[in-house]
Every structure is written in C-alpha cells, then in structure tokens.
C-alpha cells in the first residue's frame, strides 16, 4: 500500500525550481524518492541547489532554461531525452504576475504574462508528451492560481493565463488519457514567496488578504508542494483533469 504514497522510481522535471513553490515541490519530491530535474534562468542558483541535494544523497540534475524561449525549451528536451533515461512527471510551475489594473497593463505586459504563464506551459506539455507517454504513467501538474477562478482585484492577464491553463489541463487530460498521461492543476491563494513578499510585507495589504481568508493566514510553499506530490504519485492514479485549490478556504468564502 505504501508504494502508492511515494515517488520512488519516478523522474520529475520541475520548472522555476530555485525559489518559492518550485523549490518546495523539488524538496518534497526528493524526500518522497523521486529523481528530480530542475530548471530556472539562473545557472548559479541551479548549481548551488544541485550541490546541496547531491551532498545529501539525492538524485538531482538540472540546467539553466528560460521556458519562454523556444530554443531553450528544445535544448531542455534534447538534454532530458539523452540524459535522464525517461520522464514520468512534468511540473509547470514557473510563472509571474504584474499585479496591475487592467487599464494599466501595457501590450508588453500582456506578452510577458501570456508567454510565460500560458504559452510556455502549453509548449512544454506538447514537447514532453512523447517521453511522458512512454513512461506508462505520465503525470502533468500545472501550478495555476485561484485568480484563474475568481477575481482577485488586479492582474487580469495573469488571471486569464491561469484560467487558460486550468482549461488546457482539462483538455489534455481527456485527449491524453489514452496515452497514459494524467494532467491536473493546483491553484494556490496567497503563499509566502519572493513573488508575493513585496505585497505581503505591506501590513494593510496583508490585513485585507487575511480578511478574505477563512483560515486567517497565508499559505506556505510546502502546503502547495504536498498537493503537487499527491497528484504526481500513484495514490492519485484515477484522478485527471482536476484542479485542487490550496487556499485556506478563500474560494468558498461568500458572505
Ligand atoms: P517565485 O517568483 O518566488 O519563483 C519563481 C521561480 O520561477 C524561480 O525559481 C524563478 O527563477 C523561476 N522562473 C521565473 N521565470 C522563469 C522563466 N522564464 N523560465 C524559467 N524559470 C523561471 O514564484 P512563486 O514560487 O511564488 O510562484 C510559483 C508559481 O506559483 C507561479 O506560477 C505563480 O503564478 C504560482 N502562484 C503563486 C502564488 C503565491 O502566492 N506565491 C499564488 C498562486 C499561484 P529565475 O528568476 O532565476 O528564473
């Protein structure tokens, strides 16, 4: 039975793995027995993290890769195909937000957000489909946001990108079930990371976030990582096309 609740003999690729939620997912996966391949745009961060993981006896590899650049994505596929001996899990986590009101977002803001949060995710799913299918139990986990399901006041391009990926995930869950690939997403509300530090450090902003959060606290990266791990492991083998919110009750809080 315990074999269903770990990631032994699973190889996972995690994007945006050097900070915040991606780093927590990496460490959760390693602790559950996975071999992990990490990417971000900063080579030094990758090197430091790999040294740390390997010194503790974990199986980890990685490379610098900007997921928004087609050539980088191709190089990533090439390296992973030749060096990891397969892939079972793809976690699309890299993402960002401009947190501007709709009329303040420029055309460049739209390109930046939609390319990073939406196009790169769709492209990586497409590129890694053959490897994931060959594994016989492929699992895609896309990190989205509660902003993809309801208004959170700012960041409409971000919200659209996350809503797009929630629906894209449903689509591929249906199309690729026959290819032995499950696809699910995880939607966090506010989690303490470098992305949210600038807004959460403002007391009045934090207070307004907490006033809308039944559990009266923001989340920790590990709490998102746990949901991602569940969706990647054999324990969730009949779950596909779902979106799990990790939000302290935020989405259920009506009146
Ligand atoms: P952080 O900004 O703390 O970390 C982002 C990670 O992604 C870093 O490792 C960063 O490294 C990497 N990254 C950024 N751009 C690229 C790129 N173009 N190519 C490759 N790697 C990249 O973000 P969070 O951990 O807070 O967020 C992770 C995900 O969770 C995002 O998709 C975000 O939308 C989502 N999310 C976060 C919430 C939160 O409250 N924190 C709430 C809801 C959703 P580097 O800059 O060196 O490339």
How do you describe this structure in short?
This protein is of the alpha/beta class. It has helices spanning 20-31, 43-55, 70-83, 107-135, 156-175, 197-200, 203-211, 221-232; strands at 11-15, 35-40, 60-64, 89-92, 138-143, 181-188, 243-246. Strand 2 (35-40), helix 2 (43-55) and strand 3 (60-64) form a beta-alpha-beta unit.
Characterization of this structure:
With 255 residues, the chain is α/β, with parallel strands linked by helices. The chain is built from eight helices and seven strands. Strands 3-2-1-4-5-6-7 form a seven-stranded parallel sheet, with helices on both faces. Helix 1 packs across helix 8. The mean pLDDT is 97. Bound molecules: NADPH dihydro-nicotinamide-adenine-dinucleotide phosphate. The site of NADPH dihydro-nicotinamide-adenine-dinucleotide phosphate has 31 residues, from helix 1 and strand 2.
């Amino acid at each position: 039975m315990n074999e269903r609740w770990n990631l032994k003999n699973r190889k996972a690729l995690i994007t945006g793995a050097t900070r915040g939620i991606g780093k927590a997912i990496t460490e959760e996966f390693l602790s559950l027995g996975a071999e992990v391949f990490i990417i971000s745009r900063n080579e030094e961060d990758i090197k430091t993290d790999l040294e740390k993981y390997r010194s503790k006896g974990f199986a980890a590899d990685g490379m610098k890769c900007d997921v928004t650049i087609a050539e980088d994505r191709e190089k990533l596929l090439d390296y992973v195909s030749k060096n990891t001996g397969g892939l079972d899990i793809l976690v699309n986590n890299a993402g960002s937000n401009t947190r501007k009101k709709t009329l303040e977002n420029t055309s460049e803001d739209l390109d930046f957000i939609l390319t990073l949060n939406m196009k790169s995710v769709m492209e990586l799913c497409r590129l890694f489909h053959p490897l994931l299918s060959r594994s016989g139990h492929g699992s895609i986990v896309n990190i989205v946001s509660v902003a993809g399901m309801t208004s959170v006041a700012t960041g409409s391009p971000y919200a659209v990108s996350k809503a797009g990926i929630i629906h894209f995930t449903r689509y591929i869950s249906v199309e690729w079930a026959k290819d032995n690939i499950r696809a699910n997403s995880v939607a966090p509300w506010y989690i303490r990371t470098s992305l949210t530090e600038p807004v959460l450090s403002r007391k009045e902003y934090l207070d307004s976030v907490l006033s809308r959060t039944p559990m009266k606290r923001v989340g920790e990266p590990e709490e998102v990582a746990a949901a991602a791990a569940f969706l990647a492991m054999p324990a969730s083998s009949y779950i596909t096309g779902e979106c799990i919110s990790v939000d302290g009750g935020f989405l259920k809080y009506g009146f």
